[in-house]
Specification:
The chain is built from 13 helices and 30 strands. The chain is globular. The relative contact order is 0.09.
Length: about 600
């Protein structure tokens, strides 16, 4: 038997290309053309294949070593049939060896593209497979396709869009709009316009919600087709580091091979033990969106964003709503002052809120779900027509057989990733809910785009300074960056500018003066580092604060930006003026 040196093939004149993955170890038996290591240049990722079949006697490179054309990668003891000297490994196609762009270019360089699967002498079914077609998943797939990669998108639902579009963000906002219209019609009586009591046609309301969802999911299907992204319906699990097993609705299984994978499988509602989940009167957030009926008495377990949004919907439709929350405040992630206007409005609307309280037992009875409580504030009602359990979501990382691909998954189903969204297996990426908090669609979309661009060879990483959060309750609550609570806990020296909507002409005209806007500034630099808004359309307003933080704006930058009048958005500029001491729309005595 002969020992054969396997060398780095022609990689387009690039020097110092890093080794990002070792695919074999000494003693492994390899086939001809089997990948030994993976390299990543600024143009592509590519495998160096074995030129012969045999046994790996030695690896001559380590992870993160920099190699160039002709460097020895490994020593292979060739099989007897291959004892003759092996020919040099074939160079990859031109796409992987494109010349570097000219230095000091004054126009953006064209998008960089990963080497196609054939560049490594492997016939993978696709360059990229994306598992999960939620906002993060479809964004990743579409971006990958736009960059010229052959892309497959796997989704367990019948239509694209994942949880968010099918049973989450979008249908819930459609129903929240319906509840808002009911409230606004009732509120009109205060200024002399009286409407008849609303008549709820649940079938028609359900159809409206489904039409909203359908319009968006059909649009996604059309865009996938335009981009030549192959969409497969089914449940995917890993079969190996480069193959997936996909089971469709009929139980049929197909195997898909891939050069790269992006895991975007999201999360699912937590089902607390102790509830009779086999009874349809006990719901998670998905069940609640089905609108089976409008219960006379509804218990919402969990005073977070999802629970309160659904409480807002059902209260608007006519349910008597009780909310129990184990923590000492609603929406625990927000500053307490942001939550107070919401709590006050819920009280005037007849929603019973019980903090520091939990359900200790729940049984299915003939008249409803019989609940037992423990805590500081015990509800008067003990029997409810329906119970919605909304205590958070758990990541789906543990449901994909990731161990077969060698991907590390934490105890809670979370998958660790680096700043490029890579898992511990360099050609497999993960994004969205299953890489950690915050579990938000708009975070997942940016992560998905980043992962696709990194696969295509672009040198990028996750650098978002802040990620905004919004509770679409009534009033809405939105916050971004460093909160007052966080600043105090960390001992940061900050100042706060707060503008009450009671002094806003627009809010007064709307009859919704309970809100306010506040900005958090670093005392040393006067740069804005956080902000919070409570009031109608707060979710629309928070983007200005997020942009100000990303741009490193100082207080004068915001205060000197002319905002249109009368608008709710001018409250952002006025909050800056409050901090700066230049506000004229309020009288704030100077501190002595």
């Amino acid at each position: 038997m002969a020992e054969i040196e396997v060398k780095v093939p022609d990689i387009g004149g690039h020097d110092g290309v890093p080794v990002i993955e070792l695919l074999v170890k000494p003693g492994d038996t390899v086939a001809k053309d089997q990948g030994l290591v993976t390299l990543e240049s600024d143009k592509a990722t590519m495998e160096v294949p074995s030129s012969v079949a045999g046994v790996v006697k030695a690896l001559k490179v380590k992870l993160n070593d920099a190699v160039s054309t002709g460097d020895v990668i490994a020593i292979i003891e060739a099989d007897a049939a291959a004892s003759a000297p092996a020919p040099a490994a074939a160079p990859p196609p031109a796409a992987a060896a494109a010349p570097a762009p000219a230095a000091a270019a004054t126009t953006p360089a064209p998008a960089k593209q990963a080497a196609p699967a054939s560049a490594t002498n492997h016939s993978y079914d696709c360059d990229v497979v994306v598992i999960g077609a939620g906002p993060g998943g479809y964004t990743a797939a579409f971006r990958a396709a736009d960059l010229g990669l052959k892309t497959v998108l796997v989704e367990r639902y019948a239509s694209l869009g994942g949880v968010c579009l099918n049973v989450g963000c979008i249908p819930s906002k459609a129903l929240l709009h319906a509840a808002e219209v009911i409230d606004e019609a009732a509120h009109a009586n205060a200024y002399g316009i009286t409407f008849a009591a609303p008549k709820i046609d649940l079938d028609k309301l359900r159809s409206y919600k489904e039409a909203v969802v359908g319009q968006l999911t059909k649009g996604l299907a059309g865009m996938a087709k335009q981009r030549k992204v192959q969409a497969l319906q089914g449940t995917a699990t890993f079969a190996s580091p480069n193959t997936l097993s996909i089971v469709d609705a009929d139980g049929k299984t197909q195997v898909l091979s891939f050069a790269h994978a992006i895991i975007a499988a999201g999360s699912q509602a937590v089902k607390l033990p102790g509830f009779p989940w086999d009874d349809t009167r006990v719901m998670d957030s998905t069940d609640a969106l089905d609108l089976a009926d409008v219960p006379k008495k509804l218990l919402v377990v969990g005073g977070g964003i999802i629970g309160l949004e659904m409480a807002t919907v059902y209260r608007g439709l006519g349910s008597e709503v009780t909310v129990v929350e184990f923590m000492p405040q609603l929406i625990p992630g927000a500053d307490p002052d942001l939550v107070k206007p919401l709590a006050a409005r819920l009280k005037t609307q007849g929603v019973a809120v019980h903090l520091k309280t939990k359900v200790t037992d729940a049984k299915a009875g003939k008249k409803g779900i019989e609940c037992t409580f423990e805590g500081d504030s015990i509800p008067d009602a003990k029997v409810f027509d329906r119970v919605l359990v909304a205590v958070g979501r758990s990541a789906n990382g543990g449901k994909l057989a990731c161990e077969k691909a060698g991907v590390t998954v934490g105890e809670r189903g979370l998958i660790p990733v680096d700043a490029q969204m890579r898992t511990n297996v360099p050609h497999i990426f993960a994004i969205g809910d299953l890489v950690g908090q915050p579990m938000l669609a708009h975070k997942a979309t940016h992560e998905g785009k980043l992962a696709a661009e990194v696969i295509a060879g672009e040198k990028k990483e996750w650098v978002a300074r802040v990620i905004p959060s919004v509770a679409y309750t009534d009033p809405e609550i939105a916050w971004v960056g460093v909160s007052e609570t966080e600043a105090k806990a960390k001992g940061l020296k900050v100042g706060v500018g707060k503008f009450p909507w009671a002094a806003s002409g627009r809010a007064i005209g709307l009859g919704r003066t309970e809100g306010f806007t506040k900005l958090v500034f670093d005392e040393a630099t006067h740069r804005v580092i956080g902000g919070g808004i409570v009031g109608v359309h707060a979710g629309e307003l928070i983007s200005e604060v997020a942009l100000a933080i990303e741009m490193g704006c100082e207080v004068e930058d915001i205060g000197h930006t002319i905002h249109p009048h009368p608008t709710l958005s001018e409250s952002v500029g006025m909050a800056a003026e409050v901090y700066d001491g230049t506000i004229t729309d309020l009288y704030i005595p100077k501190k002595k």
